[in-house]
Amino acid sequence: MSIERFGVSVESKLLQKFDMLIKSKGYTTRSEAIRDLMREAIVESDAELENAEGFGSLTLVYDHDAGDVVEKLLHIQHEFHDHIISTTHIHIDAEHCMEMIALRGKISEIKKIGDRLRALKGVLYGKLVVAKSMSR
Length: 136
Known about the structure:
CATH class of the largest domain: Alpha Beta
Shape: globular
Number of helices: 4
Strand content: 25-35%
Largest sheet: 4 strands, antiparallel
Number of strands: 4
Distance between the termini: 15 Å
Radius of gyration: 19 Å
Oligomer: single chain
CATH architecture of the largest domain: 2-Layer Sandwich
């Protein structure tokens, strides 16, 4: 794969903050960090990926005493059992739990599942990360 060089102009304060961020994340060069940011932006915005096969990681933090959130979470997960690879349940404290769900299937379906689970009353935080299946 060929490498192309290009220039980027940014304010010095922004560049200083970026340099601190990439150093804290273990990048050895700005180029490595920028390539990762570009890949992430493309994956998140590429409409062609909606029908592509992929994988997802959904993290939810919720108040297990809020209504019937636990029952609804389980119901939706069973509804989409063919897309769920695994789940991990963690007790954060006396009221809060974190659930991490690994998903597979069409990216549009993975996003649909993530949206339904994050929208439940009692879910305090939800983050879905998706990636297109890699073909060799």
